[in-house]
Amino acid sequence: MKRFTLDYYLDGLRSKDTVVLARAITLVESSRSTDQYLADQLLNEIINNNAQSIRIGITGTPGVGKSSFIEGFGSFLIQQHKRVAVLAIDPTSQRTGGSILGDKTRMETLSKNPQAYIRPSSSGSTLGGVNNRTHEAILLCEAAGFDVVIVETVGVGQSETLVNSMVDFFLLMIQPGSGDDLQGIKKGIMEMAHGIVINKADGDQAKLAKRSKSDLLNALHLFAASDTGWNTRVELCSALEKMGFAEVWEMISEFRQQMFENGLFLQNRIDQNLSWFENRVNFGLMMQLTSDDRLSEVIEKTRGKVKSGELSVSMATTEVLDMVRQLLS
Amino acid sequence: MKRFTLDYYLDGLRSKDTVVLARAITLVESSRSTDQYLADQLLNEIINNNAQSIRIGITGTPGVGKSSFIEGFGSFLIQQHKRVAVLAIDPTSQRTGGSILGDKTRMETLSKNPQAYIRPSSSGSTLGGVNNRTHEAILLCEAAGFDVVIVETVGVGQSETLVNSMVDFFLLMIQPGSGDDLQGIKKGIMEMAHGIVINKADGDQAKLAKRSKSDLLNALHLFAASDTGWNTRVELCSALEKMGFAEVWEMISEFRQQMFENGLFLQNRIDQNLSWFENRVNFGLMMQLTSDDRLSEVIEKTRGKVKSGELSVSMATTEVLDMVRQLLS
Known about the structure:
Chain A is an alpha/beta fold and about 325 residues long.
């Protein structure tokens, strides 16, 4: 990878240069220690450049039309004089070993718009979960003047929790369906959602979509409001007919305003930062400790015995921690 | 604390002596290193003594009638020739600094029954959460021949997740109510529940309870079934009129049988053991590392700067891990 100076990155971001933005994200994702050093400097310089942005996480089962929605919704936002960045997050990408094919093809109009920036999930990022650098990529996008940063989950599983830990507004996208069809929604994801958008509310499905909305509202009504005082909203939308974008944006804007007024918007970002810090420190500690051969051997051996029922959890923990004590003394 | 030998504990548990059981739980909760050594030995000896037991977690907002239910349900189970242990879990007890007042008074009949054992939340247990020893207390109860171990959440907050991590069946108790009244239920808790029991389904409230049940079933119908294939059930009950205990027990027994047949019952206990091991090791590592003054100082300082926005998470993590590297080398 060609190396650039800190000033190159800072100037480029300030002048909203998306080529530099792309390089900065690549730098942050790099596992080379010299790159990491520069990345730390860069990230520290652009701190606090983001109070005006809104970070939106979008999830939904494959086929629900997330890409078409983001394509249409992103174009709508650009008409409202916003600049829109789209990041994809995929904790499984280490397994597939490559970038998500066709991200730019999927969002053809948006990807050609100079007010938009689309970043496919990087093949360079190792390890999903806690070592994922999407959080840093968000900060870089904001430093490059993007007002709206959309983080899209790709694949299924634990990415929803990860995305939720770094966005302001979490949007769940579903398609019209009766109760049985909606069974793909995990309750835990429903719980995270600030808004549910029923896509494909057009043509033959328009009526079904309305019924889905009222079913969902009834179901949501049974549950406790979140601690923030925000009640999950449900909106209809058709990416095909470019219908409902304004309503979705209004929902997000109202959420943002309400959270600003009760002080929870920035509080949430601070809390997210602190738990992100804790997670990364814990992860780093574990990596350093388990890179010690003796310790990793003890952990593996005792873990196997806990699994087979030969060793109690209590005794296994003691054995591992005794070894750590030896290493540290 | 008077000290006893390993054989004293083992013989006592084998002969189902509840005085010895109480002392064994106290031993396991002790933070003295000699006690911890003996506790490890004891826990390792009683491993695998529990395949026939069922562990039931019970949660619900204060006033819903958990104690009356456990009193009645426990007595019902004893009539079915079961021995019933009741443990209370309260991660906030470190703050209140004492045992839950009146646990035995709340369950007067049950506490007098020789086939029952009630353990109030111990004032001796330090730190809630990961350092909590309720999981070990369950194992000791099982070693003392208790077939049914009920773990009751006391207080509100994170205890539900903790209880869920150590039981086979998670039961949410609510009272009859319309949609609005049910708003006290957090979606996340709803997600964990294998069964929901509507208590106080008697007298004037019997009709309302039936409607609550159908409302709940409709709501649950909208969500995905759990990975285990078990669909959350809803049962009516009146602790006052001793009504519904058989149905609740049937639900739990069916769950147990189904999980045994698909192999998930023991698998879940193994998984619980492994994550409990991981949590305790991680917690122990953090305790050892942060007991180093220099490191805890760096963590505290950088954490403060992350909070105030002076330092990026990335840079803060690097600073902490550099210090760890120094300590380990």
